[in-house]
Design brief:
binds fructose -6-phosphate, 34% helix, 249 residues, seven-stranded parallel β-sheet
């Protein structure tokens, strides 16, 4: 199934469209007392979306009481109190500002000893299944073609596990840490297979630096060297882009 492409003149417009999809799901489920299961991402890309969802919560009564969330990934070695951990990011950028039950928010644990990581990853997958599976998975894309932290090469069958971060990814994230030397070398991430199990996938990308990898993911061969290209196998995947990120399509 080809990936659906939606291109907007501005990031703000694109963000409103993405927020509409999340809002529609959450409200539709709330009407019948059901939960909405969201797969969430961190990084700079979704920040504007989270701001818009917070605005809708505060100004338009969008409640997150029926939301269960699973984040894609977490750096190894960083506790949730570390300001660069993805748990901290999610609290700051979304959870602290809406009425989500904190017990319903899941981010992989980055601080477990190696011997406990496999069991933790299996339990994460099991928790997603027990929640009924992910309804909408939000993604950004790394310039390596990673989704979550599934760096090339990553097959379409990978599941939640500990991975090694690509040097390009570490350099791209260096500004958040002050220096590349402080960026962790490993992370726990949902796998490509975990992402492909979501009922719907929404990938956001902004700006010229993402144009090449967006084009390769959408039009290139499906390959473990571009993990986002596996999204071509998904039945309900949309890339919501600004003009610059769509420039090479
Ligand atoms: C974040 C994640 C990553 C980012 C990607 C893009 O949870 O899993 O795949 O989406 O590295 O990062 P930004 O948005 O900072 O360009």
């Amino acid at each position: 199934m080809p990936i659906t492409i939606q291109t907007y003149a501005t990031k703000e417009e694109a963000v409103r469209v993405a927020a509409d999809a999340f809002e529609a799901l959450i409200r539709e489920r709330a009407k019948t007392g059901k939960t909405a299961v969201l797969g969430l991402a961190t990084g700079s890309t979704p920040i504007a979306l989270y701001k818009e969802l917070i605005r809708r919560h505060k100004e338009q009564g969008l409640s997150f009481k029926n939301v269960i969330s699973f984040n894609l990934d977490e750096y190894c070695g960083l506790p949730g109190t570390h300001d660069q951990s993805y748990r901290y990011f999610m609290n700051e950028q979304l959870f602290n500002h809406v009425d989500i039950d904190r017990a319903n928010t899941h981010v992989p644990l980055g601080t477990l000893p190696d011997a406990e990581i496999d069991a933790h990853c299996a339990a994460y997958e099991q928790a997603i299944r027990a929640a009924g599976g992910i309804d909408i998975q939000l993604l950004g894309i790394g310039r390596t073609g990673h989704i979550g932290f599934n760096e090339p090469p990553s097959s379409e069958t990978t599941r939640t596990r500990k991975v090694h971060l690509d040097e390009l990814t570490r350099r791209d994230n260096a500004s958040f840490f002050g220096d590349v030397a402080h960026v962790p070398h490993h992370a726990i991430t949902m796998g490509c297979g975990t992402v492909l199990d979501a009922k719907e996938v929404i990938l956001l990308a902004w700006g010229e630096p993402k144009a090449d990898i967006v084009a390769k993911s959408v039009k290139g061969p499906k390959t473990e060297m571009v993990p986002a290209s596996w999204l071509q196998d998904h039945k309900n995947c949309v890339f919501i882009l600004d003009r610059a990120a769509a420039a090479k399509l």
